[in-house]
Amino acid sequence: MYQVKTYNAIVQAGFDRFTDQYQINQTDDADAYLIRSVNLHEQELPQNLKVIVRAGAGFNNVPIDRATANGTAVFTTPGSNANAVKELMVAMLIAASRNLFAAADYAAHNSGADISKRTEHDKTKFNGQELLGKTLAVIGVGHVGSLVANAASQLGMKVVAYDPYLSSDAAWRISTDIHRAKTLATALKKADYVTIHVPKNEETTGMIGAKAFAAMKDGVTVFNFARGGIVNNTEMLKALDSGHAKGYYTDFGSDEILNRKDVIITPHIGGSTGEAETNGAVQGAETIMDYLETGNVQNSVNLPNLQAPFGTPYRITVMHQNIPNMVGQIATILANANINIENMSNAAKDKVAYTIIDVKHLQKQDANIIDQLNAIQAVYRARLIKK
């Protein structure tokens, strides 16, 4: 029986996906966490915790290094809220181009006997522009960015895409009509609108800063529905105050950008739809079950993708440091116990490696094999899975 602990509100569809081998919120000493936005940085991770799944694309609320040291695999559910974020982004793009927020605010405060006359006189203050023929720079064309790029292209916009993480042509999900820029500066150069859809990490924090703004033309409008901190707010305000930028639309508020007419902030609602929450919960439950029952890995933050058919009665998985002779040490322990390896797979991601070993036969005296593997200094966690 596996134990799962949840944080935040996880929709029932996610719970319904678990089989009767799983108990939900029966203990804090869980095998798995299924979370959304709870901050785990100040919390102790149980030694028994094998997997954390964040129902969503971001993972800055999870202490990755501590999870790795604990032998805990961390997963996200990429793509589960992609359509929701795309639809909000397209809505904001249209709203920005037509000055809808300012116009709606004016209309809400316009009263008196001569409303119609004053409206006809004042409406030119809110003249906008059509998106047709305008240029949109999409920075990051993963699950969300590719949808935004394709939707903007369908609206008749000229779309320039740049992604520092996608090199293979097969990884680009964008229409062939969309231009692929080789550098960030090239993507930004002619853009009327810039939208950001990259993950937040050390490389992308502050990515849209002084250098990026210098590459943009006057009158640009910037959108950030990815993560707070990717756009440098100080530089954003400088661009707005100088008139270099026309407006900033973001899902991530902070004190320095509050109470400005040229900044529109939504309260982190990009993925807040019933459909997105259902998708994330279901995908999260399936990820937990797949990892606990097969050891296979896909969409992990701290482990490499590694999947192998589970065709033997037993499977041993080892999460370990990516250093020389680890596979040799693991194989030697099995050989000394006279355990034959039917299949072995290994992959690495940065400083962490992961090994899957399938065996047909284990004897009672082999019960301490997992303890021996866990005793290797560079092993984070070894597990035995019975089919």
Automatic annotation (TrEMBL):
Keywords: NAD, Oxidoreductase
The protein's Enzyme Commission number: 1.1.1.399, 1.1.1.95
Start and end residues of each ACT domain: 315-387
Catalytic activity: (2R)-3-phosphoglycerate + NAD(+) = 3-phosphooxypyruvate + NADH + H(+); (R)-2-hydroxyglutarate + NAD(+) = 2-oxoglutarate + NADH + H(+)
A molecular function (GO) term: NAD binding
InterPro entries associated with the record: ACT-like_dom_sf, ACT_dom, D-isomer_2_OHA_DH_cat_dom, D-isomer_DH_CS1, D-isomer_DH_NAD-bd, NAD(P)-bd_dom_sf
Pathway annotation: Amino-acid biosynthesis; L-serine biosynthesis; L-serine from 3-phospho-D-glycerate: step 1/3
Functional note: Catalyzes the reversible oxidation of 3-phospho-D-glycerate to 3-phosphonooxypyruvate, the first step of the phosphorylated L-serine biosynthesis pathway. Also catalyzes the reversible oxidation of 2-hydroxyglutarate to 2-oxoglutarate.
PANTHER family: FORMATE DEHYDROGENASE 1 (PTHR42938), HYDROXYPYRUVATE REDUCTASE (PTHR42938:SF47)
Family: Belongs to the D-isomer specific 2-hydroxyacid dehydrogenase family.
Protein name per UniProt: D-3-phosphoglycerate dehydrogenase
GN (gene name): serA
